[in-house]
């Protein structure tokens, strides 16, 4: 039996299953319920936010045998075959590997003929920003004068690379990164359905380090639980490459006490582990947040309360200092995807001066 990944098993199949994208769902519901089906759409946004899933959902909404609907039945031939990516009238094309104009010409030639089963023949072009300029030019002619009952759905992570003439002829559907709360709630539901044991702190880590990508969070879950159906802080830290709480607390203590010698010693031990430096800075942010909450009489993570160093930092660090450090880290982690070893060391030393 073919193994189905968790990401595919829990792929959203209806508009209401698409989490954190309320504006897009509202727009599409208006379009579909009015039966004013536009011939071209461009779905764009970060990786793992549901772009391909949304393209298939749109295809089902307009082709469900029940009727054109915002709630496709998922039981008819069209719905089932689209879910399985086996519908002959719903053609998915990888723009990254089929960049030449001949590929687009083939699409246009197929579009001339009536669909076999569906109301609309649909062309989903993924990674469309990889198409050649000549391909875009040829596609533009089709978008200007589309064939009856034909839909074009373009998907991209880099809309800035798409010619404005193309974008202007499409319904623009922008998917945003998901926030931590949305990701955590969704993966918690998945884990309960899959009978996988988990703890709250581990889900926090997975949600935060997924960088707004639900698919990334689900893939992390799958890697952790591939052998044993349990998610705890130990195996989550190992999978994400994050440090134990004590290591982070000692770094914060050295920064607060301006103990550069001890700080450098701690940094050297960390860099020898070969972990991602940006990930460690984000961990420091998270721990500062927990210290600030504790100072405000809110216990977010009970496991930290057993450490004397956590209680000490909660007592001696002012809210102003915690906030200033946190804000500086936000600027650094947002502006830099990769932080080399020397920069990492200098960033932390600078905090302690």
From TrEMBL:
Q: Where is the AAA+ ATPase domain?
A: 37-178
Q: Which GO terms describe its biological process?
A: DNA-templated DNA replication
Recorded superkingdom: Bacteria
Q: One GO molecular-function annotation for this sequence?
A: ATP binding
Say if the entry is tagged with keyword Isomerase. no
The record describes its quaternary structure and partners as: DNA polymerase III contains a core (composed of alpha, epsilon and theta chains) that associates with a tau subunit. This core dimerizes to form the POLIII' complex. PolIII' associates with the gamma complex (composed of gamma, delta, delta', psi and chi chains) and with the beta chain to form the complete DNA polymerase III complex.
Give the family this protein belongs to, as stated in its UniProt record: Belongs to the DnaX/STICHEL family.
Kindly provide the name given to this protein in its UniProt entry.
Answer: DNA polymerase III subunit gamma/tau
The species is: Candidatus Azoamicus ciliaticola
Q: Which lineage ranks, top first, belong to the organism behind this chain?
A: Bacteria, Pseudomonadati, Pseudomonadota, Gammaproteobacteria, Candidatus Azoamicaceae
């Amino acid at each position: 039996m073919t193994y189905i990944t968790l990401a595919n098993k829990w792929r959203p199949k209806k508009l209401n299953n698409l989490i954190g994208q309320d504006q897009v769902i509202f727009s599409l519901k208006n379009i579909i319920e009015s039966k004013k089906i536009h011939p071209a759409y461009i779905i764009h946004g970060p990786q793992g936010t549901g772009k391909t899933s949304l393209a298939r959902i749109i295809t089902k909404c307009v082709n469900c045998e029940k009727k054109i609907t915002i709630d496709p039945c998922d039981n008819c031939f069209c719905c089932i075959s689209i879910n399985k990516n086996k519908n002959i009238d719903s053609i998915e094309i990888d723009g990254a590997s089929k960049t030449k104009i001949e590929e687009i010409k083939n699409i246009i030639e197929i579009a001339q003929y009536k669909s076999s089963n569906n109301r609309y023949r649909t062309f989903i072009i993924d990674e469309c920003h990889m198409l050649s300029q000549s391909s875009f030019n040829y596609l533009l002619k089709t978008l200007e004068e589309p064939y009856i009952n034909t839909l074009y759905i373009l998907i991209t992570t880099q809309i800035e690379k798409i010619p404005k003439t193309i974008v202007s002829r499409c319904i623009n559907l922008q998917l945003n990164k998901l926030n931590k709360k949305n990701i955590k709630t969704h993966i918690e539901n998945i884990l309960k359905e899959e009978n996988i044991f988990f703890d709250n702190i581990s889900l926090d880590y997975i949600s935060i380090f997924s960088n707004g990508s639900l698919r990334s969070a689900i893939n992390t879950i799958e890697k952790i639980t591939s052998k044993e159906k349990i998610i705890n802080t130990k195996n989550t830290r190992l999978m994400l490459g994050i440090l134990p709480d004590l290591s982070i607390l000692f770094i914060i203590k050295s920064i607060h006490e301006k103990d550069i010698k001890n700080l450098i010693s701690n940094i050297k031990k960390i860099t020898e582990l070969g972990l991602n430096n940006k990930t460690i800075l984000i961990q420091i942010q998270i721990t500062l947040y927990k210290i600030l909450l504790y100072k405000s009489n809110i216990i977010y993570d009970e496991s930290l309360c057993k450490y004397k160093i956590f209680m000490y930092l909660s007592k001696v660090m002012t809210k102003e200092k915690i906030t200033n450090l946190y804000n500086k880290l936000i600027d650094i982690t947002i502006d830099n995807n990769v932080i080399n070893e020397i920069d990492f060391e200098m960033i932390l030393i600078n905090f302690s001066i």
